[in-house]
Amino acid sequence: MSVFSALFDTKIKNFEQAFNVKDITTDNMKAAIREWYALYYADKSTETEDPCQRLPFTVINKLTKTTFSEYEAKSENAFAKTILNGLERRRKQSMQQTLIGGESFLKPLLLSDGRIEFSVIQRRNYLVLGRNETDAITDIGTQESTEIGGLYYTLLERRTIDPAGYLTIESRLYRSDSRDMIGIEVPLGTLDKYAALERANKLPNPLWSLGLIPVKCPAENCVDGSEDGVSVYAPAAGLIHLINVNEKQINGEFERGESRVIVSSDLMEKDTTTGKRRFKDHVFAGLDDDPENIGVTIFSPEFREQSFLARKTEYLRNIETLIGFKRGLLSNVEESDKTATEITNSSGDYNLTIIDFQQMWEVAVKEALRVCGILGKMYQIEGAVDLNPEKDVTIEWGDGVLFDRTRTWQEYNSMVSSGLLKPEIAIAWYFDLPRPQTPADFEKIRAEYMPEMEELTGGDGSG
Fold it and tell me: What is the pTM of this model?
């Protein structure tokens, strides 16, 4: 490219250039994030590794299934139900992307028909541009891509929270004929779905949020010690590579069969005159011996299957330890899937791991209710109201996960028998009813549920 054309080149290569900002994520973290995604999506064998075991997928899938195996979120508030329905449709994707990249965001989409949907922003699709004194993200850049008619459109969005809690959103749309470049800026209205966006929009009321719901893996950062979230398998990334190397080696063992071909070293070199291909050194072993002994020797060793499998099992056990898995979940093929209750009722790190992820998701759900309540009223969404996350949503994870329901019920029975608790209150808790407040509430419970209470407690239902 000439100097003249460079001066007038209006093509943008990346977000930092478009907004004249700097990603504060360290180079070590950027490299780690790329590696986590490469490990998860790897499906092709290389010269040194075979990822056919797909261990990252197995780890993410088992954790997600177990975490949500007995999950239920409900509310008596109609607007809160709308939000919970939207979260339900993205729950698994959000959890999986968080476990892969260490952190993700749920972006609320308030639709004109009153529905609330969410999109998931992967860690590789946003830049961290600033944090406050508590290390919370206050400045972020995101990108969203669309391909139409061979052209690539990229929406760049920068969200910034000022010290007073007001959120400013800047939006810019770019078009390119290549995936490798953002291209030139075009009007937001070029695509219908962005026509309603403003180039810069400062929300009229303080939100104290990016308008995005953070979902961050609870593991401590083992890459650079920063506040960036890390993949659930970050500590085991090296071991996963070793598993892939081991798989490549054992596959090669079987592909080549039992035989080895030992040749004199002169046969290992490429003939520069004829251009003939040299023998592959992972199949043929060069051996310098008697110069008169030129030719080929066949060596047929025993298969080393057991040693390869033993090494892989040890790697898998080490991965279980690093991630906090129950022993045998990866290394024992006969280990079956378990519910959250079964996991929690057994001892070990896996119990704590599942509880950590459940608490992570519960925090995200409550923040979604708070943020969507404010945004809903701000944008005059029908039915929108301010929500109290502590009162307007009930999240249950199954018996024995965040609490032991059986033990709690036994304690309630003991209190009823001792005259410390009215049986109607215990029944209301057991059947997930509103706590009785008025004489009519108590009478209704007695009329409808006291027979069940007598059967459960073996008593007469009297306080």
Answer: 0.74
